[in-house]
Structure formats: C-alpha cells, structure tokens
Amino acid sequence: MKILSRYYKKIKIAYIKVAVFVSVIAAFFLPQRQTLESTGDNSFTVYLNGVQVGVMGDIEEVDECLIAARKSLASGSEEIVLAESELSWEGEEVLWGTVDDKNVIISNMLAALKGSVKETLNRSYTVKINEYTVNLASTQEVLELLQASIKKYDTGNQYHTDLVLDSSRELNVLTTQIYTEEEQENEEEAIVTSVGINAALDEIFADIEPASEKDFSDYELGLLSLEFGDTVEVVESYLQEYDLTPLSKAIEEVTKDQEKEQIYEVVAGDTLSQIAEKNEIPLADLIAMNETIENENSVIRVGDELIVTVPEPELSVERTEQMYYEEDYEADIIYVENDDWYTNQTQTLQEPSAGHRKVVADVSYRNNEEVSREILKEEITYAAVPKIVERGTKIPPTYIKPISGGRLSSGFGRRKAPTRGASSYHKGIDWATPVGTAVMASSGGTVAKAGWGSGYGYVVYINHADGRQTRYGHLSKVLVKQGQTVTQGQKIALSGNTGVSTGPHVHFEILIGGAQVNPFDYLN
After folding, report:
1. Each residue of 366-376: pLDDT tens digit?
2. Of 172, 177, 135, 145, which Cα lies nearest the Cα of 160?
3. Which end of the chain is more exposed for a tag (fewer CB within 10 A), N or C?
4. Which of helix, strand or coil describes residue 318?
5. How far is 286 from 518, CA to CA, in rounded Å?
C-alpha cells in the first residue's frame, strides 16, 4: 500500500505541473484569453438591442465597433436606413477572461442592426411651386412633370426643360430652364465666334446695310418664346415611400386648372353682372367673395378692386406667338375737350365705322389668357372712321344724404299709397326722423324755392351747377330764402310733418332735366 500511495502522489503532482504549464502556454499563445488587471469591472458582456454581441475587455471601444457596424449596414443601400441601436453591457471583475475579436463583435452587431431596421428613407425630390409642393421619386420624374406643363402649348415639341442650380440661393436648390435645340447650338457657336473677325464683320455690315420693310412672307410665324410664369424650386430630400406622389397624379394636379383668387380693377362702364360674365363666375359668387358688395344693386366705382376667381393651373406657362390674321377693326375714339361742361356731359360729333386690315403681331399669353399684343406689320384694306366725342372737363358736384341718421321709411318707385292724397309712385326717398332734425343741403347751389309747397308742406328747392335740382319736403321750419347761395352740408331747414304726411320724416328728391331720378344712384 505504501508503494501505491507514493506512486499516486507522483502522478497527481505531475498532473498539476502539466495543467499549470498548459495554462501558461494558453495565456501567452491563445488570443481569446488574456490576463485582466484587477481594477474593478474588467470584463464586459455587450448587448445591442437586447441581443448579446460579444465580450470586451475595454468598454470604451464599443462605440467604435457600433459605428463600423452602422457603416457596413448603410453601405448595402443607396438610401438612408434607419435602425434602432440601443447599447447596454454587464461588467464584472475577473482574473482570467475570454474576450471576442473586434471583427466578431462588429459582425454580431451588424446582424443585430439588420434585425431592427425601422424604415428606409428613399432619395427623392420635392418640387415647390408657390404654395404647392409635391414629392417625386427622381429627377427624371421632375423633368417629365415640367415637360407635361408646356406640352399643350408646344405642339411642335420645340422646347425642353432642364434643372439648373439656382445661383441666387446659398443652399443647393435647383430651378428650371427652358431651351430649344437651336438655342443650345447657337450658344455653342457663339462661344467660338463671339470674338475675332467674324463678330467684327457682322457689326460692320449691320451698320452699313439699311433696314428694309418686311413683307408678310418674311415673318417666321409660330411660337417665339416659352417660359414658366411661376418660380419652381427643386430640392433633394429623403422621404418614406408613402410620402411620394405617383407621377401621373402629380401631372394632373400641376396642369389641371384650379379656381384661384385674383384682383379685378373696375373700369369705366363696368357693372357687377358684366364683371361676373367677363370672369365666368356666377353673380351670386362674386357678391359672396366681396364683403363690400351687399347685393346686385350695390354701387361700384372706377378703380375699385374686387376679388374674382379665375381658372389657372398650379404652374403657369407664359408664351409669345407670332401670328398673321385679317380683321375688322375700330379706330381710337377722338375726344374734343369742353372746359364749360362737366365730365358727365358728352356729345357724339361723328359716328364711327369699322375698317379692315391685315396684321402680323406678337401675341403674349399667360396660359390661355392674352396679356399683350404688339403689331409688327399692318396693311389697311380700308380705313376705319373714328368716333368723335365732345366731353366736359369740369368735375361735377357731389351729393350727400341731407340728414344725419334717420330710418329709411320709403324708397323710390312704386308703392302702396300710405294715406289719401299720397302718390302710389314715390318720386323720392323718405327718412323717418323726429321733428326738428337738422336738414342740410345735399350739394352746393342756389335756393330756387323756400316756403309752402302744397302736398310737400314746407319745402326747399335748390338748383345746382350741373343742372340738377334737389327738393326737401314736409319740413317744420325753413332756414333759407329764395336766391340764397348755399354750400354742401349747410343747414337749410328743420324736419317736420307738414303737407301730405303720415308722420315726422324728410322727403328728398333729385331731378335731372325736370324729372325725378332715384337719389340712391347719386348719393355719395
């Protein structure tokens, strides 16, 4: 037994020596094991999005590995890839530990990122036209959208669109350029010939050769120029798939006419119904759009600005066409000024008759609406006879409401007679007001009558410089005399209830040529 025991001890000691030797060899020659310093936590198990990706001895290197993994993920797509990357780790202090190679950790991180890809943002292009924006998938789609906007005006397919960098912007913003193939070729030739003898000779001959009048056949008729009427801005962006608009829908939105508000300035001769017809909108809609218009009888004046709607596409196109046509035409009206007449006084001295002519003109349009016309050549077949009108230059007097306040109790025109002796056709307007209310001259003039006037009760007539007359009836007291000159707004009487009257009020008339007219048509 002693011999066996001694032998067993020798084997045990040999086994321990071999184990120590192997451990030392492993420590020096195997990379996955290393001696770790005892300075607190020195072995870190790293997790990415809850998935274990490896063990590290230096936790400060974890961000470097994550950046490398994200770069690897992004390199597999031309678009922007969004993925969650929530890092966590558990640390412990060990004497001997196994750590993973950084490449292994990066590979494991890449696998974890792929499993948590949130969404991919597609490279796209946002097109902005005034307040309208649309997102398209490529520059090719942007160009197709722009080309569709000019297609209906460019039937010969002469013009092409391109995107160029907007030099006026600090950021990379693209804008549009429209060109023809001929323009592009001429520009290239101009670079070569803009300097040198050819350019000099062209200038010399241009000075020597006299300009001769063109014949109709010398004009090149057709589309001369075409450009967008709105500023187009295009920027590169990264968007999700559902944020992109299909090209066909974008073309429909951009080229289809939309009802857009514009300002219309009232000109001489305009009425509300004419303005509505001219702009192809219902009269009721025109009234609804303008707060200053109460109804179809509201007064409008030259220079007033009204809101109207006109059909226009989101992207307007401006073009100029050179065209030949024959037409009957009217000569411009010839005015003869008369300083003794008021501006509302006119007389036709000669009636017009139309002439006929052949014309070549440059006509400019915004979309389908003509904005200007320049006649380049005109040949009169037979001349038009102009209309000759004599007109006054003096500003006519104005008319104001003769009382302050009051309630409108009877308008101008047909009515049911309010009392025996009263007319069923009212030739003025009435304002109910307490007895003694101040009555003022509606306009300056000379008192023609002041006193009792039968059915009018106490009444005042005033003649005005423009030939009109105003009358003020049912007064309680007259404050002016016949032949007296009064100014606009001057107190001429007190209101009352005299004559044929149903209550205290002021009756007011305006007469032109001896006949009563509706005062509301003339009051300011």
Report:
1. 998 899 999 99
2. 177
3. N
4. strand
5. 25
Q: How far apart are CA 350 and CA 387, in angstroms?
A: 5
Return the HEC string of 212-281: CCCCHHHCCCEEEEEEECCCEEEEEEEECHHHCCCHHHHHHHHHCCEEEEEEEECCCCCCHHHHHHHCCC
CB contact at 8 A, 316 and 229: yes
Rounded to two decimals, the pTM is: 0.51
Angle between helices 62-74 and 102-114 (to 10 degrees): 50
For residues 440 and 198, the model is more confident at 440
Pairing of strands 388-394, 334-342: parallel
3-state secondary structure of 315: coil
Which residues, at least 6 apart from 112, have a Cβ–Cβ distance to it below 8 Å?
48, 49, 51, 53
Reduced to 3 states, what is the DSSP secondary structure of residue 104?
helix
Domains with residue ranges and CATH for the chain: 33-115 (no CATH), 124-194+214-251 (no CATH), 267-312 (3.10.350.10), 317-394 (2.20.230.10), 407-521 (2.70.70.10)
Task: Report the alpha-carbon distance of residue 401 to residue 520 in Å, rounded.
Answer: 9
